[in-house]
């Protein structure tokens, strides 16, 4: 039973940290988009990180995690299909956010307004979706996904994560999780990534400071 509890905690911890990262990142883009002092390059980097990672996150759920849960618990199929439909709606909001032109050294007031409106739509879509997803997903992870299945899924997610401002993921994880939780989530990262974690953390700290209105 102790091993079962340990497995359950890890699956849920990793999922919770990923979700909290999405909440934090999308909220930060809304806030940063409303500050004229934040450079366009910093906004573009965060925007691109959000678009790439949210798409990847829900695609891995639709393609790999949902089928595992549905195979073990067919009665969850309808709920999982509903969550996948919400992913499609999120993609529409992400398309709008990705289309905002953030090239150039500065952004016009109209451009910032456009960015913020698109960012708000993504933030609200993510928050509403997770409110519905988590009460169903967390028990499903506990009851229906084996340790081996979770580890294989998590490794597949790691190896396919898009290399878009990956240091921001490290920075966000450090903010939403305890050191022990973050360490347990990062332990299976590729050795080249593990060897540069201090540099990634330093870069993330500097970039997040700029996004929050501080100096680099």
Q: How much β-strand is present in the residues?
A: under 5%
Low-confidence stretches: 1-8
Number of helices: 9
CATH fold type: Four Helix Bundle (Hemerythrin (Met), subunit A)
| Head-to-tail CA distance between termini | 49 Å
Question: What would the principal axes of the Cα set say about the shape?
Answer: globular
Radius of gyration: 18 Å
User: Which structural class matches the secondary elements?
Assistant: mainly alpha
Main sheet makeup: none
Q: Could you state the oligomeric state of the chains shown?
A: single chain
Instruction: Write down the secondary-structure element order.
Output: HHHHHHHHH
Mean pLDDT reading: 92
Total discrete domains: 1
Structure summary, number of beta strands = 0
Describe the overall structure.
By secondary structure, this protein is an all-alpha fold. The protein has a single domain, classed as Up-down Bundle (Four Helix Bundle (Hemerythrin (Met), subunit A)). The protein is built from 9 helices and no strands. The longest helix has 36 residues. The protein is globular. The N terminus is likely disordered.
